[in-house]
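Dear U.,

For the methods section draft, I wanted the exact inputs and outputs in one place so we can describe them consistently. I've listed the two proteins in the order they'll appear in the manuscript figures. Please don't edit the token lines directly; just add comments below if something needs changing.

First protein:
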Amino acid sequence: MTTSETTSCGCTGDTSRATRDPAYRRALLSVIVLNLGFGALEIVGGFLADSQALKADALDFVGDGTISLLGLLALGWTARARSQVALAQGAFLALLGIGVLAFAAWRAINALAPEADLMGGIGIAALAVNVAAALMLARFRDGDANVRAIWLFSRNDALANVAVIAAAGMVAWTGSAWPDLAVAGVIALIFLHSAWEIISGASAEMRGDTAHRRARA
């Protein structure tokens, strides 16, 4: 298969393709619906199971859906505007991470073991939703900072769900709340790491755009 054939079939990422391909818009809209819908269900499940990891993961779902919606709206904007949106996405993700860490630390003072069976069941359902979302977005992950930010949100969700399922098993085995709190902390750290990646990429794009504008002046 030639390079042009590979590009046209959509088998590999394309920096500009994701912003003009109707298939990307459809995939993104599907991901938004999945994330916001399941996020609302999972936050209820998190309170029912009294699981901080599920609550953190639900915040990730809702944040992912909200930021993906903003990313969808930004597709028709200029490259600089999309970079600014990516900066906002990164800042939002960082705030989520800090908030989850703070709440997990507060709950550690009075740690109660969550309902392991409910926690694990919701974690498995969430993983299925996130794998579906990640598969829909995977071929578009090499776009600009805004597109990469959306991909990182979806990838984070899947990683967090694996951790939640593992924590549910540890809670069932030990009868302790600490695996749940530890996973909530890990999810928060994933948030912060991805926020750094998003902000760094968006900042680099904005610097490049500024330099390009100056060179043309």
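Second protein (the one for the lower panel):
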Amino acid sequence: MFFLILEIFGWLFLILSFAVIVIYMIMMVLSALEMRDYLRKNRFADYGDIVTSPIAPGVSILAPAFNEGANIVQNAKSLLSLHYGKFEVILINDGSKDDTLAKLIESFELEKTDYAYNPEIETKPVRGVYRSNNMSYRRLTVIDKENGGKADALNTGINIARLEILACIDVDCILSNESISRMVRPFMEETNRIVIAVGGVIGAANNCDVQDGTVTTYRVPESQLGKFQVIEYFRAFLMGRMAWSRINGLMLISGAFGFFKKDLVREVGGYFPKTVGEDMELVVRMRRYMEEQKKPYRVAFVPDPLCWTEVPESEEILSKQRNRWMRGTIETLQLHRIARLNPKYGLMGMVSYPFWSIFEKSAPIIESLGIIYTLILLIIGDFSAVYFFALLIMMYLLSLLVSSFSVLYEQLAYNQYKDKKDLRSLIWTIFTEPFLIHPKIVFWGLKGHYDFINGKGGWGAMIRTGFKKAEDKKNLSPQSTLK
């Protein structure tokens, strides 16, 4: 019986390995086709027409802030300076314990208004709504509320938002001036389907020069973990999400930069505050609603580099982030398990949900079982070195191929990293990542499963060091760089 179980496991791992190869090859082809079509379509696009068009949808930018006093004023000014005709900026002070609110009041001449707050979506109590009499800041609204977490803060902004499209972002993100016009285009061009949400690419701003709220010079991060995340983001956005967008199977839009149809978000009840994966959960819930209502819809994706954020470069912070991502994925899949292999939910139920269950949620467990299986074979003397190393080399080459093509897509389409030294460091990271970093990602994923089973919640602290300003780099002396 024991040996029969081992044989079954062996066949399962072999089948799964070949399934991984086939699936990722298909994703590479789909993403390449989607990128090609997108670039062709946008070759002659004039986004200035969208900026000034009277029929372009209005956009409410929602940015929760908690203890962001150090950078909140500059971040708010950056959002207010975006190029678009009809938008508002809603900053939600989520019970900050520092001087976030005081700095906003002083810098933007804010006054507390007699706003009749009527929460369509239930949230923590609102202590005040602030506006400015200075016409220069007429687009800005600041909400002060009791602390309830990011999802609760976003729900408060949704209750107050006046315009048709919600742009939900992290307040410390850097947005391109064209970000709104490019992200609203999918909402405008579909005629036979309702675009319910649009996702965008997130770039790593570590080690880049930032001036006046804009990235002026692109560089890869200095740390190995930072470089790994650059490649990982290329794989996730330019390959993974482009492929899913091609077949309209996208289940996840990054919480740092996502656009949503406001009426539908309100209809489904807004963000779910009791999960740490509120971004994915909202998209899945919106898709479920549209499938149940039998309405044609689309979740779109824009691959242009429009948003940059600081990625964690310490193992402690990165491990907390990956732990949280895993717990959020598990929670979302459990909350919406009715869609699993259910034809009623179309492509999401039959393709997207199983993929996320096996290759995202269960991947760390499967890889760990594979290691245990190999050790058992070694102990009982049934280990085949030829079979093992052939499979290992095959999977390693697949990893190199997928990562290399992701970098190639970025270079052909956008060519942000022009320094050959940066490209060489990314290539070196591609070769070393499977051995140096991937095992840690697997362990952090397992820890996420363990913490979920034990009911651990919370986000964990995300400590940021701040962006590098171009003028700061110029002022560095040779002595200071050695400290």
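Candidate sentences for the figure legend, describing the second protein: The longest strand covers residues 297-309. The radius of gyration is 23 Å.

Thanks,
Y.
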